[in-house]
Specification:
mainly alpha; 3-stranded antiparallel beta sheet; 27 helices
Length: 700
């Protein structure tokens, strides 16, 4: 049974892993992600330390209770810590099964579940810091209070809740004797109440529409609000303009540079066709969404086409407002073509096109225009295409164009619409561009020989990719294994390893050091292999088996790797490194980036490391293991961090003031000043300058 069938089997029933002999890593992972307790029935002896860590990680993530079943000695300190943190982050109560507790581990547990505080080892806390246990208790209480606050009903705000002096809303359906005063109060609170008014008057209609423009849908024809009423009563003494759109009038009152839109109903016969067209143009200048209120019956075909193209050119979203009954298929096609030739956000505009209103050839032409107009085809563009609207040949041509720019979009393609030969051609093209795309290929759509050729292409580019291919053991697998060996991979499946082969492989891919078996080499040979691997990839220092080397040899490897990889202190066996050298590595790492403070383990120099880190970047305070500090030490670190943040903010403001203006400061009311004194900068308006300053401060 091959890998694919095994994975499909355990996905249906995770317990089926018990009946599979020597399951591979992917099959085991699929089972453990469903039920971590199944790790008890998996023979893990054949897996490497890193693979065993992946299995343990998946197991504790789904079921933290399996912690006692994990072999800590196989993982080592760093990987075991990672497994424990994963367990408590998913279930804080997993702390009960952990004997080797640390303050940081306990903090993660009580943050996830405050009840985990009951399993905190008080003896451990007191040995580290007399205040540690109290700080953990406060953190647990804070988590509990935060969780309780989320469960409380939300308070009503002034906007959503009822004001003390505001009268309750009136439902006119419950009022038998309606007066004009009662109806006016009702429609001023809710304009849609106009539909329940027995006798609609112009005063009530105007009040309802001002409260909610949608209320005009419920105004009876015998009680229309006329244009002359609007001009004569509503807007006397104010600058105004009115635009008649079909059966509507959009009226905007200009006062204090703010426009208040009011929509009132009016008969379209009140203006001539030329006046109506000019009013529509004015309305579109105000907002292009007004295209939905244009009545095509009052315009010629050319006038309506110009209005639609002008609106869509600037705002593609208004495409949805154009009624299908108002335009024919040819006009709709011309509008879409114009839209794709003018807008910037092509992908969003293309989504607005309704393929059902177009013929196959028209939609195909629009799709080609969309792809040609895009300078850089956006990811997942192939999903926006209605494949069923195209013929098989047309869809194949479109996919070919898209995949030339974005090969990884292969997985979003509707392969069922392609023939086997078309699918094979596209599969070869994307794998040749990037070997990792072979993961997206459905091997069942390919002939066996074609699948094998694809695997050869992928493995020839990177030998380690052999580990992710579903190839049953046999002649074909041996061919791929030979190709992988020539391209830096395949050591995991090699029955026996020799020095020359391993040395050549790790020179091409240093991470292959993980699969080198030191027991098959002399100490001198293994040292040479490690040096070659670390020269290619310094981070592979974590794969070095330190027990297979002398202390001096291991120290030599670590020193060489540290010159290129400053975070080495988190990947080495600290017990074999002199303390002074280890601390110098920590200082060097912090000198390059204060963010390394989150990975530096606690030591007697940790307080000084933290001070050095926060003096460069005060924001790293959140990554410091403060539970191990005394109150005085933590206060000193916190003060240094606040001073750094304040200094950086001040320096930033001074630089922005130098660039954009002078006189920034704080007035007597505590408000920032200086924006009004900003000198004019070419290309920047005053609001833009203000936004630049605000954005920069937020980023810091």
């Amino acid at each position: 049974m091959n890998k694919t069938k095994n994975i499909a089997l355990v996905l249906k029933n995770a317990a089926a892993i018990k009946d599979i002999k020597k399951p591979d890593l992917e099959t085991c992972m699929a089972a453990l992600m469903q039920d971590g307790a199944l790790i008890e029935f998996i023979d893990t002896a054949s897996f490497t330390r890193r693979e065993y860590f992946n299995l343990c990680y998946a197991a504790v993530k789904s079921n933290p209770k399996v912690l006692p079943l994990i072999q800590r000695d196989r993982l080592g300190g760093k990987l075991w810590d990672s497994v424990m943190f994963t367990a408590v982050r998913n279930n804080g109560l997993a702390l009960r099964w952990i004997k080797e507790q640390s303050p940081e581990l306990c903090l993660e547990a009580v943050k996830q579940n405050p009840q985990a505080f009951a399993f905190v080892d008080k003896t451990m806390c007191d040995a580290i810091n007399p205040h540690c246990y109290t700080l953990l208790q406060e953190a647990a209480q804070g988590t509990a209070q935060s969780a309780a606050g989320k469960n409380k009903p939300a308070r009503k705000t002034k906007k959503s809740g009822k004001a003390k002096n505001q009268e309750p809303a009136i439902d006119l359906r419950d009022v038998e004797r309606q007066t004009e005063d009662i109806c006016l109060k009702a429609v001023m609170r809710d304009g849609l109440q106009i539909q329940y008014v027995h006798r609609q008057t112009r005063k009530l209609c105007r009040a309802a529409i001002r409260q909610n423009p949608e209320a005009d849908n419920y105004i009876r024809d015998s009680n229309m609000v006329w244009l002359d009423d609007l001009l004569g009563n509503a807007c006397s003494g104010m600058g105004e303009f009115a635009s008649v759109l079909g059966d509507y009038v959009f009226y905007s009152i200009s006062k204090n540079t703010k426009k208040v839109p009011v929509m009132l109903k009016v008969k379209g016969k009140q203006c001539s066709p030329s006046q109506y067209y000019s009013l529509c143009q004015e309305a579109l200048e105000d907002t292009f969404c007004n295209i939905r209120h244009v009545n095509p019956a009052l315009l010629s075909a050319g006038q309506y086409r110009e209005l639609c193209m002008a609106a869509i050119k600037e705002m593609p979203d208004v495409m949805v407002f154009i009624n299908e009954a108002d335009i024919d298929a040819d006009l709709y096609f011309q509008i879409c073509l114009q839209m794709l030739g003018s807008v910037v956000e092509l992908k969003r505009a293309f989504k607005k096109i309704q393929s059902s209103r177009l013929s196959t050839d028209q939609y195909y032409r629009l799709t080609q225009t969309f792809l040609e107009a895009s300078q850089h085809t956006a990811p997942r563009s192939i999903e926006t295409i209605d494949a069923k609207k195209l013929t098989g040949k047309q869809y194949f041509d479109i996919c070919k164009k898209v995949l030339e720019k974005i090969p990884h979009d292969f997985e979003n393609m509707q392969s069922g619409l392609l023939t086997r030969s078309q699918y094979t051609e596209l599969a070869f093209s994307v794998v040749k561009k990037n070997h990792a795309n072979i993961d997206k290929v459905d091997r069942n759509r390919l002939a066996k020989k074609d699948w094998l050729e694809l695997c050869k292409i992928a493995v020839a580019k990177k030998g380690s990719f052999l580990y992710y291919l579903d190839i049953p053991s046999g002649k074909d697998f041996n061919v791929l294994l030979e190709i992988a060996g020539k391209n830096g991979g395949g050591l995991k499946y090699a029955a026996s390893q020799n020095f020359s082969h391993c040395f050549a492989v790790v020179k091409k891919d240093g991470n292959e050091l993980e699969y080198v078996r030191p027991e098959q080499f002399t100490q001198k040979q293994y040292l040479a292999i490690c040096k070659a691997a670390l020269k290619k990839e310094p981070r592979a220092i974590g794969f070095v088996v330190d027990d297979a080397l002398d202390n001096d040899q291991y120290l030599e490897l670590c020193t060489a790797a540290q010159k290129s990889f400053y975070g080495i202190f988190d990947s080495v066996n600290r017990e074999k490194i002199p303390a002074s050298l280890y601390h110098s590595w920590c200082r060097t790492a912090l000198g390059h980036s204060p963010l390394w403070i989150s990975d530096i383990p606690f030591s007697k120099h940790y307080f000084h490391f933290c001070l050095k880190a926060v003096k460069k970047d005060g924001n790293v305070l959140k990554d410091i293991k403060y539970l191990r500090f005394t109150p005085e030490q933590y206060a000193a670190v916190r003060k240094a961090a606040e001073e750094t943040i304040k200094k950086n903010t001040t320096d930033e403001d001074d630089e922005l003031s130098r660039l954009f203006g002078q006189g920034t400061g704080v007035n007597k009311d505590g408000e920032r000043t200086g924006i009004s004194n900003t000198r004019k900068v070419p290309g920047f308006s005053r609001p833009q300058i203000r936004s630049v300053k605000t954005k920069t401060n937020k980023e810091r």
